[in-house]
């Protein structure tokens, strides 16, 4: 006779609390990953919260004077009739920005009672910050970034400081860059170039994005129109320079676009760990320039120009450089230009390419000061997402970067973290961001060109 079967324990049912937690986590996860109808509300909620935070920053945190008084002194000399750039200076040194900076701060000089109403200036810069945030969010959304990336756009302590507690011109230049990107995403090429040109005329830091802007325009509107838009960029710089160039053209262009400027070691955020002797040396500056050029060639030949069939430095030379150099004409036929414009130039392509070029320029810059974070803060989150790494790693790299930029004064460890975060981001985006760089031209045509 078989032994009686052991009694079967009744199945445990999950508690209502556990059910609620599971449902809540699924609900939140769906929102953050873009699978919920509520996902589009995330940027609006974050924007509102950041607007409140911006008001609290102005109200509660004391303003710190760095360059505002110098800007106002320089503008005062301009308004008094001085047009020789070499003679315009403020408490922190000579005027070293293009004429767009002078015109923008002339308006601020008038609005803020010759710079005396700092509170009003802070309100103006808070508004500029919020406009820039809204535009950056729009660029992210058009490029398909999921909602979980957006909190990183509003969490930067340093970025709030740059706009609202310092009133730096970098915030204005960065705003122009983001507006230009949004225009390019919407295929408003002329308007985008005008805005970009004005930003460049405010601070030459926007030169870092120029190689990618050139690629976007070449693919988006064709060689000849891109060439005309490049001329617009030059004409805008010449036009805003007229009052100063008529007085001393050499002095203006030498001072406003000074590429050989010597930087002070005590202010560097990124190269503290190399030591002052190496930092000030000519070989170090030339080495950084060489690395920058090498990185641009790498990304041009293996990523940015891949839609046109370029896959190596050799093909970059044969497919793009040689046809332009030898014939002064487009390297593409009309049908190829149409295909590239239709298939390659997506909002994601525009944003990934321009932000990557910006990152490479910052990575190899001779010296970054704290205000340069205006160009980096909203670059890193998108590129980390496009790299395809896990969101936890995205947030981790961002946190390291944010910490490093808030160490004052910088230390060898913090500056090493600044460079490491940018290096890792550049490497990850090169490896992971490939979807937007899929070939757009027919493979058979590419092969026939190679054989010919």
UniProtKB/TrEMBL annotation:
Q: Tell me one Pfam family matched here.
A: ALG3
Q: Which reaction is the catalytic activity of this chain?
A: an alpha-D-Man-(1->2)-alpha-D-Man-(1->2)-alpha-D-Man-(1->3)-[alpha-D-Man-(1->6)]-beta-D-Man-(1->4)-beta-D-GlcNAc-(1->4)-alpha-D-GlcNAc-diphospho-di-trans,poly-cis-dolichol + a di-trans,poly-cis-dolichyl beta-D-mannosyl phosphate = an alpha-D-Man-(1->2)-alpha-D-Man-(1->2)-alpha-D-Man-(1->3)-[alpha-D-Man-(1->3)-alpha-D-Man-(1->6)]-beta-D-Man-(1->4)-beta-D-GlcNAc-(1->4)-alpha-D-GlcNAc-diphospho-di-trans,poly-cis-dolichol + a di-trans,poly-cis-dolichyl phosphate + H(+)
The places in or outside the cell where this protein is found are: Endoplasmic reticulum membrane
Pathway in which the depicted protein is active: Protein modification; protein glycosylation
Q: Which domain of life is it from?
A: Eukaryota
Q: What is its EC number?
A: 2.4.1.258
One annotated GO molecular function is: dol-P-Man:Man(5)GlcNAc(2)-PP-Dol alpha-1,3-mannosyltransferase activity
Q: What's the top EC group for this one?
A: transferase
Residue ranges annotated as transmembrane are 37-59, 118-143, 163-184, 196-220, 226-246, 278-300, 345-365, 372-393, 413-433
Q: Which InterPro entries does the record associate with it?
A: Glycosyltransferase_ALG3 (IPR007873)
Keywords in alphabetical order: Endoplasmic reticulum, Glycosyltransferase, Membrane, Transferase, Transmembrane, Transmembrane helix
Report the membrane topology from the UniProt record: Multi-pass membrane protein
Query: Major location, coarse class?
Result: endoplasmic reticulum
**Function of the protein:** Dol-P-Man:Man(5)GlcNAc(2)-PP-Dol alpha-1,3-mannosyltransferase that operates in the biosynthetic pathway of dolichol-linked oligosaccharides, the glycan precursors employed in protein asparagine (N)-glycosylation. The assembly of dolichol-linked oligosaccharides begins on the cytosolic side of the endoplasmic reticulum membrane and finishes in its lumen. The sequential addition of sugars to dolichol pyrophosphate produces dolichol-linked oligosaccharides containing fourteen sugars, including two GlcNAcs, nine mannoses and three glucoses.
Family membership, please give it: Belongs to the glycosyltransferase ALG3 family.
- UniProt protein name: Dol-P-Man:Man(5)GlcNAc(2)-PP-Dol alpha-1,3-mannosyltransferase
Lineage, opening ranks:
Eukaryota, Fungi, Dikarya, Ascomycota, Pezizomycotina
